[in-house]
Amino acid sequence: MATFTSTLPDDLLKLLHEKATQLNLPKNKLIEKALSIYLNQINRVEYIQSYQQMESDLDVLGMAEEGMQDYLKQVEG
Prior knowledge:
- The chain has 77 residues and is an all-alpha fold.
- The radius of gyration is 23 Å and the shape is elongated.
- The longest helix has 29 residues, at 27-55.
- The chain has one domain.
- 81% of the residues lie in helices and 0% in strands.
- It has helices spanning 10-23, 27-55, 58-76.
């Protein structure tokens, strides 16, 4: 595991200390979990945005419609 050093504003560091104490967790574990959750949320937002962009892409919509037609033929078949 690598070591990472950073600076934080005093008020944020105080909140981190308070919450880590309350949860009985080391501060680094709390930061690790929080960062993991945050990065996962960013990935989810990017995923949603990619689908929203495809929503207006006529080529993608055409491929999706063709795929659904093929699927319905297989189901009915």
